[in-house]
Structure formats: C-alpha cells, structure tokens
Amino acid sequence: MAHYKAPGLKRKCEQFRRYLLAEVGLLDRLTKVLVTLYEEPEKPNSALDFLKHRLGAAIPENPENELLRLELAGMKEKYEATVEANKTN
Fold first, then answer.
1. Do residues 52 and 58 make contact, with C-beta atoms less than 8 angstroms apart?
2. Structural domain harbouring 25
3. Which secondary structure element, helix H or strand E, spans residue 42, and what is its range?
4. CB contact at 8 A, 51 and 37
5. 3-state class of 63 per DSSP?
6. Is residue 38 part of a domain?
7. How many structural domains comprise the chain?
8. CA 39, 45, 49: angle at the middle one, nearest 5?
C-alpha cells in the first residue's frame, strides 16, 4: 500500500522540532528531569508520573472530578447489578 505524505510535511516537522528544542527548551528540560530521576535514591513506581510531575504536567485535581468519578463508579455498580438481574430472569 502506498503511503501519502502531505506536501511540506518534512518542513513542518523540522519547524516543530526546532520549536521544541529552541523555543521551549524541551531537550534541556528533559535532560534535567532524567538526571534528577537517575540521582533519586529511591526510584518511583511510575517513571512516567515522575516525569509528568517534574515537567509540570501534573494538574491538580478538580474536586468536581472526584465527585464525577464516584458517581460513575456507582452507576457502573448499578449497571452490573441490572445486567446480572436480567441474566437470571
């Protein structure tokens, strides 16, 4: 199967790479975080969570989200109970 490549895709990728490296300083930030992870005496259970937290991607939880999660869990329990009740009938 032939793959279609949009015109100018290579140029756009190069521009995006330059943006990440130069303007955002992504390579420097990643290097610092990975060095910090390497130097940690006790390694975290999740390296990805460590990276997210250190890079600032860990967004504080909204209290409303926790309420919605609890509501969803309750609805799932009711759904499962209804499915089981319908199987027995």
1. yes
2. 8-58
3. none
4. yes
5. helix
6. yes
7. 2
8. 85
pLDDT digits (tens, 9 = 90+) for 16-58: 888 888 877 888 888 888 898 889 899 889 888 888 888 876 5
Residues 32 and 45 in one domain: yes
Tell me: do 22 and 47 sit in the same domain: yes
14: which 2 tokens?
């190069």
Residues 67 and 50 in one domain: no
Distance CA 82, CA 62 (A): 31
- Whether residue 3 is contained in a domain is answered as no
- Separation in Å, CA 82 to CA 41, 70, 71, 73: 49, 18, 16, 14
H or E stretch including 61?
A: none
Same domain membership, residue 17 and residue 54? yes
Is 0.85 topped by the overall pTM?
no
Q: Using one digit for the tens of pLDDT, what is the confidence trace for 54-82? A: 887 656 667 888 889 899 999 999 999 99
Q: Are residues 50 and 12 in the same domain?
A: yes
